[in-house]
Amino acid sequence: MFTLNSVTLRPLETTDLDTWYTWEYNMELAMLAGWIPLLAHTAFKQKFEQRINEPKGEMKYFAIDYESQFVGVLQLAEIDHYEKRAAISIIIGPKELWGRGIGSTALRLLLDYAFTVQGLERVYSEVYGFNTRSQRLMERAGFHKEGILRQHTLQNGKRQDLHLYGILKSEFYERYPTIFTLPE
Prior knowledge:
Order of helices and strands: EEHHHEEEHEHEEH
Strand content: 35-45%
Structural class: alpha+beta
Helix content: 25-40%
């Protein structure tokens, strides 16, 4: 577990899945996250129980707790230790908590973990063009907009642009001190 400013990252647990599933049926959230079509409850639980109980090395899930309550999920995916890079995605479920800095703090914790503990040199994210909230979050966290893949994906019945964001280890540590102390 890692904590900063009342935000804690911890391993995602199977007991979190019912709450996460309720976020799937918030249509605004589902569209922003690209979750359409939605999974049935049983299929959702089976999919993520397997990912929690039998994790693959290239993917790590973290629960985001705010003031000791489960409020979101962070994913470090496509972890490539040879290339020293990974992709991230984030979701804050309860809309009343959007815009409170929880996502920025959670990203800061995850990036510190990715760069210090996992030894990565680059983290990137792909954000839909219509998801301006996530674009602003990436920029606030120190990511650079690296480009746009025009009409790259079919989402919500239309071709959508995909905005690419990236941050390097050196850029992150120019902005933030590490919270981790690793043995020499």
